[in-house]
Specification:
The chain is an alpha/beta fold. The protein has a single domain, classed as Ribonuclease Z/Hydroxyacylglutathione hydrolase-like (Metallo-beta-lactamase, Chain A). The chain has seven helices and 15 strands. An eight-stranded mixed β-sheet has the order 8-7-9-10-11-12-13-14, covered by helices on one side. A hairpin with a 5-residue loop joins strand 10 and strand 11. Helix 3 crosses helix 4 and helix 6 packs parallel to helix 7. The longest helix has 12 residues.
Length: 302
């Protein structure tokens, strides 16, 4: 069974929720983190889930805003600690980051914990991958022997099965976000199941209105899409689009275009997180399937 854990569902300025982070857990127990919240809150989220640091296989950063990426030094530190446990069997951690952000994020982790990359701590277990924002799709396969490999070709249509030995495939797609704009990416995780089938999760990250996002993962089992603005609450939709954010209505349209089975709204705004029903209703006006508005630490089996 594959599981999705909503570690953080909020946005900046909301003290009631953790900032964005979603965990995908494979049937074998490997953990893939998509974004890492805004700081040490990711540590408490992993503890409360609970998810083991020793099973962390990959981290995907959708973009380098602090509420999505500032937890990375904590993630790498606690991964290093896990590697020091007696009898620990830990492997590499694949860090999939927009290419232009690699140098800055790597340096930030070293700045906040000098010596992190020395052999006594993390050593060469951190493997940085710069996802090319000029590519429509970029991919990495996680193998059952603990290693990873770049697929020889990336099919724009998600595969019905994954190659033998592949635990999960990470696929990223460039999206538009930020004012000023910054490199950002949505991500699709294809998860190999015991019966040979594939479960598929798509996470939008922060993005402006983008119906093309439906092309990154037609017919996913779950789409986790930001919903930073809600028309019925009088939010300034033009401003949301200008700074690279999407509405609940956009999330519903993308879900319909991608033929999603279930839609989960996240990146909830502080002004409406306590009562998400308007956002759920607005998304449901454009999407006939199930619309979820999860709280921190909610989980969903696929």
């Amino acid at each position: 069974m594959a599981r999705v854990v909503f570690l953080g569902t909020g946005s900046t300025g909301d003290p009631s929720r953790r900032s964005a982070s979603t965990a995908v857990v494979t049937p074998g127990g490997d953990v893939i983190l998509i974004d890492v919240s805004g700081g040490s809150e990711i540590v408490s989220a992993m503890r409360d889930a609970p998810l083991p640091w020793a099973r962390l296989r990959a981290v995907v950063i959708t973009h380098q805003h602090f509420d999505h990426a500032s937890g990375l030094p904590f993630v790498l530190f606690w991964s290093a600690i896990a590697g020091k446990a007696p009898g620990a069997a830990v492997g590499p951690i694949e860090l999939c980051v927009p290419g232009p952000a690699v140098e800055g994020l790597r340096a930030a982790c070293d700045t906040f914990f000098p010596g992190l990359y020395t052999p006594w701590w993390l050593g060469d277990r951190a493997r940085w991958h710069g996802c090319d924002p000029g590519q429509f799709l970029w991919a990495l396969d996680l193998l059952d022997d603990g290693t990873s490999v770049t697929p020889p070709a990336i099919d724009h249509g998600p595969p019905a099965t994954l190659p033998e030995g592949v635990v999960a495939r990470i696929v990223t797609m460039a999206v538009s976000h930020g004012a000023p704009p910054m490199p950002a990416q949505a991500v699709r995780i294809d998860i190999a199941m015991a019966d040979g089938s594939v479960r598929r999760v798509v996470v939008s990250g922060d993005t402006g209105p983008n119906l093309e996002l439906g092309k990154v993962g037609p017919e996913p089992d779950l789409l986790v899409h930001e919903a930073s603005a809600v028309a019925s609450l009088g939010h300034d939709l033009d401003n949301a689009a200008t700074i690279g954010h999407a509405t609940a209505a956009t999330a519903g349209r993308v879900a319909t275009r991608a033929r999603v089975k279930r839609l989960a709204l996240n990146h909830l705004g502080v002004s409406w997180a306590a009562d998400p029903s308007p956002a759920r209703e607005e998304a449901a006006a454009h999407f006939a399937g199930e619309v979820l508005v999860p709280n921190d630490l909610d989980w969903l089996d696929l």
